[in-house]
Design brief:
The chain has 274 residues and is mainly alpha-helical. The chain has helices at 31-37, 44-49, 68-89, 95-106, 108-117, 131-143, 158-175, 179-190, 203-214, 249-266; strands spanning 218-223, 228-233, 236-242. The protein is 47% helix and 7% strand. A hairpin with a 2-residue loop joins strand 2 and strand 3. Keywords: Endonuclease, Hydrolase, Magnesium, Metal-binding, Nuclease, RNA-binding.
């Protein structure tokens, strides 16, 4: 399948465009993205750039630059739009709660879910056959276990969140940062938006809060060399989780904390000071 003409001014011509997309059908039609957004780009190059990974960007050879600069813009716009919306929706929430709520709605996992839900990853131009495709597929499977948000229990591919931010950045640049145009699109993409009622603490934070309330001393021990993370409360082993190079340490810690919480909630724990 040949590249559509609209790609020529931005993308260099490769011998096989099917080697650069997350589907086997070759270059997808970016008009489908415009249809999803309900927005038609005046500058098509911005939309094309929003889905160009650094691995295939080649500005020196006359190709398109990667999405990274648009990602920078989108990150700032997204945080501003959510901050404004949450401020207006929840007049009684403290700044601390508003900050936590905004963070939950714009973190890497939340945005990665947006990319999967709307199949935005299928428009990503990158070198196929590498880690990106495997990571996306693994994340899609893990998502099924956590319908809204895993709260730190799975490792989302950053590239998925990147293209959501770069797409928002592209729309922002194209529409001249008009809030009335931007917000309906961003709101649609983020649905369902995490609310105070649906937001949960990450297991690590929940365990810390419980231990502070009970005045228990808590610590984590372990690492890659041990192959696991252990949780000790008052020097008692109360939880553990496997840890390998394929996962972030923070994810392993959250799994260990979750295990500890289940243990503490289902058994009678007696502090060493009792």
């Amino acid at each position: 399948m040949k590249l559509p003409k609209s790609f020529f001014h931005c993308y260099p011509v490769y011998k096989s465009d099917s080697d650069y997309f997350s589907t086997d059908s070759g270059a997808p039609d970016l008009k489908e993205v415009e249809k999803l957004l309900g927005y038609k780009f005046k500058d098509k190059a911005l939309l094309e750039k929003a889905f160009t990974h650094a691995s295939v960007a080649d500005v020196a050879a006359g190709g398109c630059e990667s999405y990274e600069r648009l990602e920078y813009v989108g990150d700032a716009v997204l945080n501003m739009l959510l901050a404004r919306a949450l401020y207006l929706w929840y007049p009684d929430l403290s700044p601390g709660w508003l900050t936590q709520l905004r963070a939950a709605n714009v973190d890497t996992e939340k945005l990665a879910r947006v990319a999967v839900k709307h199949r935005l990853y299928t428009y990503l131009r990158h070198h196929r056959g590498g880690k990106i495709d495997d990571q996306i597929e693994e994340f899609r499977k893990e998502m099924e276990k956590h319908p809204l948000h895993s709260m730190g229990l799975i490792k989302p591919p950053k590239v998925l969140a990147d293209i959501v931010e770069s797409l928002i950045g592209a729309i922002s640049m194209d529409c001249g940062f008009r809030l009335k145009k931007l917000w309906p699109i961003v709101k649609m993409l983020l649905e369902p938006i995490i609310s105070p009622e649906t937001m949960k603490l990450r297991p690590k934070a929940e365990l810390q809060e419980l231990c502070q309330k009970k005045r228990w001393k808590m610590r984590y021990h372990g690492g890659l060399e041990d192959g696991e993370i252990n949780v000790f409360v008052e020097d008692h082993l109360v939880g553990k989780a496997s840890y390998s190079r394929s996962m972030k340490k923070e994810v392993a810690i959250n799994h260990a904390a979750k295990d500890a919480l289940m243990h503490l909630k289902t058994t009678t724990f007696v502090s060493s000071e009792t």
